[in-house]
Amino acid sequence: xSGVPPHGVPPHGVPLHGGDPSVLRRLNSVATLRAxxxxxxxxxxxxxxxxxxxxxxTEGALSELAARGLVEEVAPDAGRRLGRPxxxxxxxxxxxxxxxxxxxxxxxxxYAADLDGRVVGRHRAELExxxxxxxxxxxxxxxxxxxxxxxxxxRSRLWAVAAGTPGVIDSGGRVAxxxxxxxxxxxxxxxxxxxxxxxxxxxxxxxxxxxVAERWRGAAQNVDDMVYVLAxxxxxxxxxxxxxxxxxxxxxxxxxxxxxELGLRDTATExxxxxxxPGPEKRADRAAEQVLTAARxxxxxxxxxxxxxxxxxxxxxxxxxxxxxxxxxxxGGALTLAGDVLVAELRRHxxxxxxxPTRIEASTLGDExxxxxxxxxxxxxxxxxxxxxxxxxx
Length: 394
Fold this sequence. Notes:
single chain; alpha/beta; five-stranded mixed sheet; 11 helices
């Protein structure tokens, strides 16, 4: 669980004694749930000792959680014969599911994950750049259905859904500004996707979610100050400061690529060598990937092109590094899938521009970073609801 206090420390700093008995029961249940998550199978005695609670109190909390479907008692080993076996319990990660969605100009991906974040289903669909928002949304809904069908997860078992997409996303889940996906600006994505669910759908910028994913299970684990650079058709960035995603006042933090002087616009087009942005029939991302592949084989013209674009991109990335002084910069996105040749050139161009020893690393999540970040965002909402003192049963 992200941001969870040490085992035995009650949430919100509230002591586990005195006060209203119903509040105490809720406190004990929340503390028990925190301790049991990620602990595998745990005996009643071990759990009581960890929480500094009596066995009857711990047993009562477990019974309450079991009634909500969050905990179950584990049957003893069939081969055990001597003595009475210790009662063991586990968190039921399969009690509910989170859905994470990525939507960009060329594709959509959906991931279904249990409450421990284990991905149990995924589905991908290619999209046409020139599609209308209606066509794009229809394809996204079909992808979600296929993902859930493949995972064997009924829609009613979803507890939260989150989506990541290019652009500035306002607090209500509307795409306020977007220049990458045609006919996308102004789409109220949270409302459109939420039509099929009995709860609000969370929507966030794609680079922001990629940053969240890298800190969750990628190259930036345990890194509190980092910048994620999403290199694709254009180049955007997500920022984590003090272990928290930094969105800014209007959700536009990291959008330095909008300034042409910083060299982060039309990244794939520049790498591919087009004189002007290509149409749908000539995709810049695929042509750029061919250049990167050629550069990996030592092709001189391709290497020169990558060096030129890396030098161009370095201006914008260095501006963020100098402003934020992060421990690490992670570079991911479509332009890194053909290997680390672009990252190596960026590292070479960036290091002379940075005043500190900021590490420049390639993403370890491939093309899954945005979708996994959406899963993490949905799981965070689920955990927030589960651990609220006034939360009702799911």
